[in-house]
Amino acid sequence: xxxxxxxxxxxxxxxxxxxxxxxxxxxxxxxxxxxxxxxxxxxxxxxxxxxxxxxxxxxxxxxxxxxxxxxxxxxxxxxxxxxxxxxxxxxxxxxxxxxxxxxxxxxxxxxxxxxxxxxxxxxxxxxxxxxxxxxxxxxxxxxxxxxxxxxxxxxxxxxxxxxxxxxxxxxxxxxxxxxxxxxxxxxxxxxxxxxxxxxxxxxxxxxxxxxxxxxxxxxxxxxxxxxxxxxxxxxxxxxxxxxxxxxxxxxxxxxxxxxxxxxxxxxxxxxxxxxxxxxxxxxxxxxxxxxxxxxxxxxxxxxxxxxxxxxxxxxxxxxxxxxxxxxxxxxxxxxxxxxxxxxxxxxxxxxxxxxxxxxxxxxxxxxxxxxxxxxxxxxxxxxxxxxxxxxxxxxxxxxxxxxxxxxxxxxxxxxxxxxxxxxxxxxxxxxxxxxxxxxxxxxxxxxxxxxxxxxxxxxxxxxxxxxxxxxxxxxxxxxxxxxxxxxxxxxxxxx
Length: 495
Fold this sequence. Notes:
Layout (H helix, E strand, L loop, with lengths): L9 H12 L8 H13 L3 E4 L5 E5 L11 E6 L21 E4 L2 E4 L6 H15 L8 E6 L7 H4 L10 E4 L7 E6 L1 E11 L2 E2 L4 E9 L17 H13 L6 E7 L10 E8 L3 H18 L7 E6 L5 E2 L2 H13 L3 E5 L7 E14 L9 E11 L2 H16 L4 E8 L9 H14 L4 E5 L5 H4 L7 E4 L4 E2 L7 E3 H16 L6
Parallel strand pairs: 3-6, 3-7, 7-21, 8-20
Antiparallel strand pairs: 1-2, 2-6, 4-5, 5-23, 9-18, 9-19, 10-15, 11-13, 11-14, 12-13, 12-17, 16-17, 17-18, 22-23
């Protein structure tokens, strides 16, 4: 177990250190689920899995608190699997390697999983405790939050008796969240017939690396570069002069909810135009770097590479490049009622060429594109989803809008919020910030089977979630834990 297990508060950090040892990317949570179920059974806790695989654990109140309201606590067990291109790591088998970096904990070349591992660790620490006062507890640990909120979406009524729920999945200490954006996935398939590389062509690899990336909800308003947009811009600019240019391979981004940090493209041009391609690329790279002055580590290179086996046909290539140019990316609209909060956005998350195509596609290969639209308004979410889809439909692609989930409507009159504000003011001598977040929290979905739940979300300070630069502030984890326990102890008696 890593030395982070020795950080304070030890009860929380020791569980987070253990979680780092267990592979738990989205849709592959079987190992961490088995670990947590065994953890609960060994401590005599009531534990079960629901029909979709969420973990439900219950613990009686400590003596003297039996008449308090039942408190539910919720976090998700999966993590976003992101790594740097030069990092050797298999998220299905390898442990995360956390380490202390000054005031922060981060990981070696990969995402850390503090989102939402810190929340899970806090819940496990409270369930394990024998001396922390608490009311009757119900824990909900959901699966597959990051890749589709599958666990929350399929939660059924009847499992819980609680009236109050603490969601431990936000990323700024001292902030209480009472609302969030909903979202919808845009899945695009553009079939094409692979063609032989034209005679006399020379191949180049266009590499876009070093972007900051980040969470496609929390960081979408920060003006960060999108590797897919950058690569397509350079290719499109070159096509404007070198019409014989062909795309052979595209591989940009990795996850729908992470701003793409890297893109790798293979293109070919007539050998006699190779020098001109390099000139065009250098000119465009200089412009892009000047525009993205917040991306200090951006590295864009064009290098000779081995000849590919095939390239896209010219017609499909033209439609693809135009569609990627047209595809909205970033914030579409800021909220007019919540200052400084994005209302609606899109993340052009993944662009990749693949061999084979689905039956009826009309090609033997395909380009697959993924986007994630978010909005505080469900109707605006749907409309912007149609806007994004239209760019690719006009290009002849097959487009589907999938996995739509609702936002979480704020309740400023929440009794739980009032209690938590009072507890925070007593501890810190000031009011906490009450906010709505552009990212997706599971609370909107949890409200469907449990509409009576009074919910508030909070957490420690986490930066660069969904990227290999993810880190969690050590002191804030201690403050989060202390506040969590104070809130737990302050849960009122039943009506």
